[in-house]
Amino acid sequence: MPAPAASLPADLPPGRTIPASTEVVVIGGGVAGVATAYYLARSGVPVVLCEKGRIAGEQSSRNWGWIRKQGRDLAEMPLMIEAMRCWQEIVPELDEDIGFTTGGVTYLAETEADMRRHEAWLEGAREFQLDSRMLSPAEADAMLGRTDRRFLGALHTPSDARAEPAKAVPAIARAAGRLGAVVLERTAVRSLDREGGRVAGVVTEHGRIACRSVVLAGGVWSRPFLENLGLALPQLGVRSSVQRTSPAPRTSESTFGGVSASIRPRQDGGFTIARSGAARFDIIPAAFTHFRAFTPTLLAQWRILKLRFGRPFFDALGQRRWRDDQMSPFEAVRVMDPEPDHALLDDVMRAAKALYPNLADARPVERWAGLIDVTPDEVPALGPVAAVPGLYLATGLSGHGFGIGPGVGYAMAQMVRGEPTVVDLSALRFSRFQEPGGAVAAKPA
């Protein structure tokens, strides 16, 4: 899967230099940052994207590859509907096949509690006029090639899709480059340059870039970046482990979600397999600052949560300050490459074979982990940072950012240009965390 973290120091590729100035600098080469740069460039706005390591080196290539409306928080739904339109618009512009397939998403129901949860979501989502519907036990069995009525039913959305994350995000970055965006890998932004409190540029490890606006789309790195500016962001990272299998037969083109194992058909003929709500949380200094706000959500939403006191990335994601002329944490860890939880993945593989008969002869051939940037209410933080005019935030995508990423980029590009956003983003505003009651309560499990 992704390459190990790069060592320091890093140089720009031969022949590359950083521009002296631009209109907008985007920090972070994940799906949100890349899509923002793409849409800014497409509208003719000069933009430079700075990525400390490599494009999609972290969670944006390590996620499950689902592009779904189904099961999504209703606060995100308008933007996700727009994101689906963006995917359909972007895919023909790319220079390669990214495995984009409209195969649907299906959530299986093994218990009455599963059925109630799916039916409640479907009822709440009716205002969006989706094609989601409940399947009968016979329909659910048929999709999986079963005849034993293992499931009470399923929630199914035929128009949902999937793609290969490790291909999709770099391909969008290349498309942004063809539109005029300057995409710089191995270029960490250490801090902001401000004049009169307002953004006047960024200070990178290779020098200053003057600009009028900055979009911070740094994933788990957004919090330490803001802390170095004296700003608080309630965002923590949880470690999620994933695996892919050898090629196996398909009974359906749908992606399937089950409590014990979820699977996505892959372009290479295998499946991506993981377990929803199974994560490891490494205790770092920021945890003691924000953990109270997160405790209800972590207990309610993450069915298997392992807490660990550990050294991995402790210093990089810890709470410390640095000057513009000092090495930053973003240079210390170019690519976050945590170790997967092999015991968990062994159990997930066993569960997957029990749920999905087509996986009987499949074997795991690759495993990886990534850090998910989670907010207390598990929806993104998007919008301007009032304390620093010219600074915009696009972070906290909370484990479902790949699918919605192009919609985030489209809306952020509109926002930076001073235009009304395609949908109302007030429910996702960054400022909600500074408002009374900003430590958001957990949603029902």
Give structural notes:
The chain has helices at residues 31-42, 59-62, 77-90, 112-124, 137-144, 165-178, 222-228, 285-301, 314-317, 329-332, 342-355, 401-416; strands at residues 24-27, 47-50, 66-67, 105-109, 133-135, 153-157, 161-162, 182-184, 189-195, 198-204, 207-210, 213-216, 236-245, 255-257, 262-265, 271-274, 278-283, 304-309, 364-374, 381-384, 391-395. The chain is globular and about 70 Å long. A hairpin with a 2-residue loop joins strand 10 (198-204) and strand 11. The chain contains twelve helices and 21 strands. The protein has a six-stranded mixed beta sheet, covered by helices on one side. A four-stranded mixed beta sheet has the order 5-6-4-14, with helices on both faces. It has a four-stranded antiparallel beta sheet with strand order 15-16-13-19. It has a domain at 24-99 and 162-237 and 276-335 and 365-433: FAD/NAD(P)-binding domain, CATH 3.50.50. It is of the alpha/beta class.
Q: In a nutshell, what does this entry contain?
A:
The protein has 445 residues and is of the alpha/beta class. The protein has helices at 31-42, 59-62, 77-90, 112-124, 137-144, 165-178, 222-228, 285-301, 314-317, 329-332, 342-355, 401-416; strands at residues 24-27, 47-50, 66-67, 105-109, 133-135, 153-157, 161-162, 182-184, 189-195, 198-204, 207-210, 213-216, 236-245, 255-257, 262-265, 271-274, 278-283, 304-309, 364-374, 381-384, 391-395.
The biggest beta sheet reads: 6 strands, mixed
Strand proportion: 15-25%
| Net shape | globular
CATH superfamily of the domain at 24-99 and 162-237 and 276-335 and 365-433: FAD/NAD(P)-binding domain
Rg:
21 Å
